[in-house]
Amino acid sequence: MSAVTTPRATKPMENPAQAQAVPTYSTLAPLREPLFRSLWIAAVISYTGSWMQNIATGWLMTSLTSSPMYVALVQVALSLPVFLIAVPAGALADLVDRRKFLLLTQSSMVAAATVLGILTVTHVVTPQLLLVFTFLLGVGAVMNDPAWQALTPDLVPTTTLPAAVALNSAGFNIARAVGPAIGGLVIAAAGSGVTFLLNAISFFGVILFLYRWKPSEREVPQVVSTIGGAIRVGLHYARQNRQMQAVLLRTLAFSLFASAFWALLPLIASDFGASGYGAMLAFFGLGALLGAVVLSRMRRKFSPDRTVVIATLIFAGALFGLVRSQGLALSSLYAAAAGLAWITALATLNLVAQTCAPPWVRARMISMYVFVLQAGLAIGSTVWGILATHRGLTFAVTAAAIALCCGLPVGLWYRLQPERVSV
Hints:
The chain is built from 17 helices and 2 strands. By secondary structure, it is an all-alpha fold.
C-alpha cells in the first residue's frame, strides 16, 4: 500500500489576516485537495455513524428501563467527558504525534462500539453497561476532537482554510440531518445492536486515511514534561493572545443564549408531532449547508467580527420568529435560518481559534474553544429550561433572542481580527 504524503510543508500562521491575504472564496475549493477530500468523505461517514449511535442509544435505554433518570443519564454520559478531559486532550494532542494519537482514539471508539453492539445483539446489555459504553465513546470523541480539528491546516493551503473549516462544519451537519433518519430505519429493521456495529464500521474510512497518511513534520514544541505543564503553557498563551480571548468570550456569549434553540426546540415543535420535529431538524441541517456557501461569500465583504454580528442577529431573529409562527412550513424556515446563522458564527469563531496560534499550541486552543462552547450550551440549556418552566416558552425564547443582541457589544472590546497586523 503506497503512502500518502503531504504536498507542502506546514508553517505556523501568525494571524488570520495573514492567512487570508490571498483568499480563495470558492466553498468547494478545499475538495480539490486530494488529502482533504478523502478525509472529508470519511469524516461525513463517521459522523453519520455517530448520529446513528446516539439515536440508537436513547431508544435502547427506553426499551431497557422506564426510569426517567436513566434516560436522562444518556445525555450526561455523552456530554460529561467534555468537561472532564477536553482541555487535557488538547494538551496531549500538542505533545504527541497527532496521527498516531488519532489512530489510537479512533480504534478505541471502534472497540467500544463493537463490544456494545455485541452485548446488545446477544441481549446481555443492561442500563448500567449502556451508560458505561456511552461514556467511553464520549471519552474517545472528546480525546479525538482537538487533534482532529488541528489537522485541517495541514491538509489545505492557507488560502482555502476558511472554506475548509466551513466544509467541516457542513459535513457534520449533513450527518446530523441524515444520521438520525438512517439510524431510525436500521433500528426498526434490525435493532439497536446492528446500529452500534454499523457505527463501529463507519470509523474505518478515517482509520485507513490516517494509516496511509504521512504528514510533514510540524513545529517542535518547547519541552514540557507533563500534561499539567502543557495545560499551564496553553492557558498562559490564551491569556496573552488577545484574539484567543476574543474567541472564547464571544463563543461563550453566543452559546449561552443560542442554546435556547436546542434546549427548547422539542417543546416548540410539540404541536407538530414527531414528524414535525424531525422536519425542523432537517431544515436546520439544510440551513447549515447553505450557511457554508453563504459564509464564503460573506468573507469577501465582511470582517470576521461583522460576520459574527450578522449571524448573531439572524439567529436572534429566528428564535423570535420560532415561538410566534403558527404553521410547520414557517417554523421550518425559521429553523433553516437558525442553521445558517449557527454555522456562520461558529465556523468563523472556529477558524480564528485554529489560526491565531502556531501549530505547537493549536490543539490546546481548539480544546479551550470546544470546552467553552459546550459549557455555554450546557449552562444555557439549564437556564432556559428553568425559565421556560416558570415563565413560559415564549418568554424564555424571546429573552434568549434579546440576550443574544445584548451580548454583541462584547465585540467592541474583543475583536476577532486586529486592526493592525504586526510584521
